[in-house]
Amino acid sequence: MSSKDNRNISRRDFLRTMGAAGIATAGLPACAGGNGSSTASGNEVPEGQMTYRTNPSTGDKVSLLGFGCMRWPSVGGRSAREGNEEIDQEMVNSLVDYAIAHGVNYFDTSPAYCRGKSERATGIALSRHPRDKYFIATKMSNFAPSTWSFEASRAMYLNSMKELQVDYIDYMLLHGIGMGNGMEEFNARYIDNGVLDFLLEERKAGRIRNLGFSYHGDVKVFDYLLSRHDFYKWDFVQIQMNYLDWRYAKQINPNNTDAEYLYNELASRNIPVVIMEPLLGGRLSNVTDNIVALLKQREPEKSVASWAFRFAGSYPGVLTVLSGMTRMEHLQDNLRTYSPLDTLTGEELDFLQDIATRMMQFDTIPCNDCKYCMPCPYGIDIPAILLHYNKCLNEGNTPASSREEGYRKARRAYLVGYDRSVPKLRQADHCIGCNQCSPHCPQRIDIPKEMQRINDYVEKLRQDTL
Question: Ranges for the 4Fe-4S ferredoxin-type domain (predicted)?
């Protein structure tokens, strides 16, 4: 297998990049966006202390911190998942170089990420390093019926290798198992067309080193695939796991499954677990002030996000924890958490479950900002609308009546923040209920219903008729 040695970055160039990255990030304010971190500690980022886990299938020594490539930075400084800005390849290169220098070796992407451009950017950045220094995970993201044929799915797989500049995939996933209408869609995407049989043959041939799936939605599909583990021999499975979803995922949304059940089912079969959404789309770094105070009382020098990452990494069956790190300070904070991991004690796990119980007092919409609902054909910024509502709900700025104490202040906070975070032409009043979005939502949110509810609420605030 080719290692592309002729294209490897030189040690001198690598160190120069590291120096530039350090200068570029010195003194930057911490940002709590996406799947990054909240306020980062001022401590130095440790080198040579990354925590690793061993994959029993292949013996891979995998970094506990995995780099999720869904949120690569754009040239405008935002995540490239948003708007139409191009990926900032130079910054991607710097992030990848810094991550590898500090022990990160697992990079997770998909043909669907960053408007179809994540794999190319990831391939450019990683191909500058020796092939044995990193593991690439990508996915068969054949969501659209137009990609369900064997020919279209095979072409997607081959294009992933081309974009990533590799001749084998370390970790290949069936993407979004359980989404849509459950078993019927799973059979259409992978069984009836022979795609899963093809991927199994590719694993046998060595072009796929590990084969697994990422789970969203219908637990019947999850249970079925585990019941066939003796046949498929899953090398790993990717699930959504964090301290809120551990016992409250189903309460948040009846179509979800508690992470405690998912993890235990996998651990009982010795199937390595890859964690996605350790911050629940950033919600566990953007918590309310009273929750921040409780976390800071225990660990004043550590970020709010570090608690969520410690939780995910503290379970021994976890192979790696994915974080979509758009900014260098996100990466640095997460490196501190896992270099090495300070495993949570039993008492600390109980403490986080108490935090989760407190958070459940707020009836938030379970949006993880994954943007699978986008783009909206009518230009509506669905995630921004839902996230603004959740933010105001958590901060006590969603008054139910004009007679409430502090109504005027809360009303202004909601309306001003809404207009600032969501352009008027992209607000909920433009939703016509076409429902092209809901079938793609891993959290099974009835998006048109929520758009109508939020728009009705906003209109009452604007007309001062609550």
Answer: 421-450
